[in-house]
Known about the structure:
Blueprint: E1 2-3, E2 25-26, E3 42-44, E4 49-50, H1 53-61, H2 64-79, H3 85-88, H4 96-114, E5 125-129, H5 135-144, E6 147-151, H6 155-164, E7 177-182, E8 196-202, H7 210-221, E9 224-236, E10 241-244, E11 249-252, H8 254-264, E12 267-273, E13 283-290
Amino acid sequence: MLGANSNLCLNSYLSATATHQARDKCRVRVRATTRIEMEIGGLDSNGREFKSADEMWREEVGDSQKKLDWYRNGVGYWQGVDASVDGVLGGYAHVNEPDIKASEAFLNTLLTELVPNGGRNQHLVALDCGSGIGRVTKNLLIRYFNEVDLLEPVSHFLEAARENLAPENLSVSEEHKASNFYCTPLQEFTPDTQRYDVIWVQWCIGHLADDDFVSFFKRAKAGLKPGGFFVLKENLAKSGFVLDNEDKSITRSDVYFKELFTQCGLNIYKLKDQKGFPDELFAVRMYALTTDTLKKVGGSRPKRKANRPAIIK
């Protein structure tokens, strides 16, 4: 990803100052496709206003060279960041704990409601997009999934993830492991067909232009097993969007995201806001996205037992 699982962003748009956004990474590259017109206004980190997202994207990625530069500069930004939790979280390492805690509660609810028997006695596989140094995989995903694949375009982050997720550095049973490490940007990645129960996309999708956002999810849908789902966890602008000129990423509003989800053919099954982050950071929201329209578990429907994390050695 272009913001390896820690795409924190300062709420700089309130004062239109150029405070830099922190994120876990998020990489990207190039591929020319049709822009999606969005009649949503916004501004950049220098305070410049745009009448629409289309105006902004036309200026930033309006031709193949501009798009190549957009993605190259995004990766270049993260190549200069230390491969540590504090580095990928932009100096906010202390948000790691509340981030993982909220994500785990959300994931547990989803596994209970969407996966037969809460995932018990099944071989579950997840994809960690924009995995960075493996922060989310190590602290969360590898405890719930038998295999986790990591997708990260910044090479020194991915090498750190390999080391962090080596069997001797994990406290889970041998049935749980990091299987594949893909040094590939989101916009160029195509998953194996029906490999994943969950595709986790955190703090990296902001590096994708709208057309690549939609193309990624359309390709990634084929990588889900029947009944599989996406979790998108991202920063949220109060309205419109905020463009970060430094790391080449965009923070979208809830309305903006929902328009793109429609373009992707995805449905929001459940959403939840992150709590416990410093006030100066953007709000963060978790979306559970499915390829089919599903009904949430109702009060009259018996809930399945929750999935349990891997047994600690």
